[in-house]
Write a structure and sequence with these properties.
Blueprint: E1 12-16, H1 21-32, E2 36-41, H2 48-56, E3 61-65, H3 71-85, E4 90-93, H4 108-135, E5 140-145, H5 158-178, E6 183-190, H6 199-203, H7 205-213, H8 226-233, E7 244-247
Parallel strand pairs: 1-2, 1-4, 2-3, 4-5, 5-6, 6-7
Helix pairs in contact: 1-8, 3-4, 4-5
The structure holds 1,4-dihydronicotinamide adenine dinucleotide.
Length: 256
């Protein structure tokens, strides 16, 4: 059946940055598709509700503490995941931060914080996941959350745009190097979805005006990312590798 193609039954899915926004919703979506979910956050105490919600709707989930910039903490989270559910074969590298200021005013520490989380974090999670999959002789699917700002740019977001562009190139490199092991690696490039990362902006008069000028004349609903991610994670996306799936209501198609 076509719907079976999208089933994640038997999969073990790890989602970073699962305590809020896109990560939280994707963790629920992957669990609804049948995956056992490891929800990762720096403060795992913030994940109790999410794990409870998944379990109440008949799924399996656990919380794990890790900072994506800290390799030891990531290894510990994967160890805990393997003890509970087995080898992680679906990864959503979602943790990310932003920093809005003009290029002239960006201090090295602020730039490095964005690069460390958005790029090195995705690198760390992907490398640890892939090494463990190869060691276990298992195939898998890694989804790196980039952004439409990895494809085009907006003013005052140099660190963020550079980091997300690098995530897209890293995704392609990982896909090429890991293809022979049956590990697919794709990037998700969301347009604008209101979360803690940007809600102040989208509630401001400038933000409201920006939304009015978008082709869709609205922000995305986070739930609209679930389908594309489940497709990439499951057999439905079995020949999708090294690609960028843009989910943005045609924002990236517009030359404004
Ligand atoms: P958010 O701020 O709600 O979520 C980001 C999550 O990452 C938070 O839970 C945060 O605690 C976690 N995080 C940050 N640094 C971390 C670290 N070092 N280790 C572990 N976790 C860490 O924001 P949102 O919007 O849900 O962002 C999720 C991803 O989606 C980010 O990578 C972001 O760049 C990307 N994105 C978001 C868009 C949007 O419109 N909201 C558009 C395009 C991409």
């Amino acid at each position: 059946m076509t719907t079976d193609l999208f089933s994640l039954s038997g999969c073990v899915a790890l989602v970073t940055g699962a305590s809020s926004g896109i990560g939280r919703v994707l963790a629920r979506g992957l669990a609804d598709a049948g995956a056992k979910v490891i929800a990762v956050a720096r403060r795992s105490d913030r994940l109790g509700d999410l794990v409870g919600e998944i379990e109440q709707s008949g799924g399996s989930a656990m919380a794990a503490q890790a900072d994506v910039t800290d390799v030891d903490s990531i290894e510990r989270a994967f160890d805990a995941a393997e003890r509970a559910f087995g080898t992680v074969d679906v990864v959503v590298s979602n943790a990310g931060i932003t920093d809005a200021r003009n290029f002239l005013k960006i201090e090295p520490a602020a730039r490095d914080a964005v690069f460390d989380t958005n790029l090195r974090g995705v690198w760390n999670i992907g490398q640890i996941a892939a090494r463990r999959l190869v060691e276990a002789k298992r195939t898998g699917s890694i989804i790196n959350v980039a952004s439409v700002l990895g494809l085009g740019v907006q003013p005052g977001l140099a660190s963020y745009c550079a980091s997300k562009g690098a995530v897209i190139q890293l995704t392609r490199s990982m896909a090429i190097d890991l293809s022979k092991y049956g590990i697919r690696v794709n990037a998700l490039a969301p347009g604008w979805f209101k979360t803690e990362l940007n809600e102040e902006f989208f509630d401001s008069p400038t933000g409201i005006e920006r939304v009015a000028q978008m082709p869709a004349r609205r922000l995305g609903k986070i739930e609209e990312l679930i389908g594309p991610v489940v497709m990439l994670a499951s057999d439905a996306g079995s020949f999708m590798n090294g690609t960028v799936v843009v989910v943005d209501g045609a924002l990236n198609a517009l030359i404004a």
